Structures are given as structure tokens and as C-alpha cells.
Amino acid sequence: MVSALENRHFSGISLGAMQKNRIHLIHSAFDIIYLILGPIFAAVGIALFYTPAKITSGGASGVANILYNLFGFDLGLMTFCVNLPLIAVGVFVFGLKYSIKTFIGSTLLSLWVSFFGKLTGYTGFLDISEPVNILLSAIFGGVLLGTGIGITMKSGCNTGGTDIIAQTIAHYTPIAVGSVSFCFNCLVVGASGYFIGFQPMLFSIIGMFCSSFMVNYVLTGIGTRRSKTVYVISDDIAVIGERVVNELKRSGTVWEATGFYTGKKHKVLMVLVQNHQYQRLLRIINQEDPSAFVYVGEAYRVLGKGFSPLRKIADTTVAED
Fold first, then answer.
1. The model's pTM
2. Which letter, b or e, does each residue of 235-252 get, where b requires 16 or more Cβ atoms within 10 Å of its Cβ?
3. pLDDT digits (tens, 9 = 90+) for 225-264
4. How many CA atoms lie within 13 A of 151 on its CB side?
5. I want to staple 105 with a disulfide (CB 3.0 to 4.6 A). Which of 44, 143, 157, 269 is the partner?
6. What's the rounded Cα separation, in Å, for the pair 208 and 142?
């Protein structure tokens, strides 16, 4: 016969498991939504903005765009064909799980590019006979492409491309992934200048910077509750810390430090605050010690009590898994 204590124990385990399953289902649902929306955004940027203006992105879609402009092959189909051997390399280097995620993301991107391209005849929304519209195509195409790639990566998948080669080279050499990827993208965009034209290549560089910015912003900005990391060096740390606790409902960490030039000992307070509390914290510091030394850093994600729950992020499948 099971005692009441054991009943409560098993009930607690059951409720905990149910809560974890519910969180996992919610995250899985968001992953599916991200996986659907991401390739759509990226495909709109490629098919309706980049391609009509002869702008080339980096990676597999950039190679496919060059082939499209030279031979008239369907852009979505070419993107898929360029990605296939790269995914095969990924199977041998990074395993099946990574390659399946890449295959899903790249296939959806290729399908949506073909869909939007055939729907509009790859003519897009803008009259590219106007030079300003080519610039707008580079900017908005880059924003949409970068947003789409970032959203897809949030789902745990990616859209493939030459990043697989970059990751492979970085896997076997000390060269960073970003450096290799940048070189490959420059090579593809440079080839577009030779085969398509110098002016489209310059607009392609603008688009590449816009897309890179948006990828980083989506991954580290949107939905991450950015916060500030504030370091305070002052002789009135105790008073400042007390007001932080009472007025901002935040805690902090204090440690001893020694000035390198003066040799004087100081106390350093590190406080993590959400963006909307930042100005209030600065006012508190200024009121208590106007001569305090303050260093402020950007914390794009803070996990733990008072911020985003750790389990919410830890349970999410990330692209590096």
C-alpha cells in the first residue's frame, strides 16, 4: 500500500513531467511556425526583390542566381541542386541530424522561391528601370532574406548554402566559421560582378550587409529581452546597492578591486537590469556618488530569476545541436 507521502511524491513527479511536456510542446509548435515563416520571408527577398534587380546573395542561392541569369534555369530548382552536394558533405562531417535540419530548411526555401518566382515571373514589385528601385531592392531584399534566415535558425534548422563548407573548413582548421563564410560570400558576389555586371555586384554588397545585420538582430535581438550589464566602481557601493534592491527590485554582485594606477582598493558592483530600468539606475548612482566610474555593456540575453526562465531556453533545440 502506497503512503500519502509517496502519493504526493509521485504526484509531484507526474506534475513536473507534465509541465515539461507542455513546455516542450509549446516550443515545438513555435519551431514549426518559425520553420514555415522563415523560408517564406527569405524566398520573398530573393524571388521578388533580389532576382528582378539581378542582385546576388552569398551562398547557394547566389550561385543559383548566377546560373539563372546566365542560362534561365529556375532559381528555386538551382538552389536545391546546389545545396544537395553540400548537404551530402554535411552528413559525413556533422552527422545525419544536422543534415536533416539543413535539408528541410533548404528544401522549403527552394520551393517557396520557385512558387513566388513562377507566380510573378520573377518580376517582383518594383520597376527596376528606376535606379532608386534597384537600391530599394537591395535594402528590402536583404532585410527580408536576413530575417528569413534568422527565423529559420531559431527553429533549429538552417537554409544550407556555402555555410556548410565554411563549417567544414572550420571543423578541421583553426580558421573561424565567420571568416570562411565571408570569403565564400565575397567570392560568389565577385563572380556575379563578372558574369552579371559590376553595378549589380555593388548593390549585392549592400544587400549582403543588410541581410547579415538582420540575421544577427533576429537571433540576438527579437524576443530576447535585451538587458544592460552595469559595473559601478564607487566608495558608496553599499548605499547604491541598497537602493537598487529597494527601488529596482534587483540584486547584484560585489567584489574587491584594486586600481592599477593608484593602488587604491575599491568595491565593484555588477548589476543586471532590463532596458527600461537603465535610466533609473543611472539616476540612483548619480545621486549617491556623482564621481562614480560606470561601465555599461549590452546583455542580449539574461537567464535566471527575475529574467527569462532558464528552462524556457534550455529546452529549445538550437541550430548548433
1. 0.70
2. ebbeebbebbeeebebeb
3. 567 888 999 888 888 988 888 888 888 888 888 888 788 8
4. 20
5. 157
6. 6
d(CA 219, CA 184): 22
Other Cβ atoms less than 10 A from the Cβ of 1: the count is 3
- Cα separation, 35 vs 71, in Å, equals 31
Q: How far is CA 316 from CA 6, 13, 154, 155, 180, in A?
A: 32, 21, 9, 9, 28
Measured CA to CA in angstroms, residue 56 lies from 200, 211, 259, 301 at distances of 8, 12, 52, 33
Domain limits, the chain: 19-220, 227-299
Architecture of domain 227-299: 2-Layer Sandwich (3.30)
Helix, strand and coil percent figures for the chain, each rounded to 5: 65, 10, 25
pLDDT for 161-185, tens place per residue?
777 777 778 778 877 666 777 788 8
DSSP 16-49: HHHHHHHHHHHHHHHHHHHHHHHHHHHHHIIIII
Q: Cβ(192)–Cβ(65) under 8 Å?
A: yes
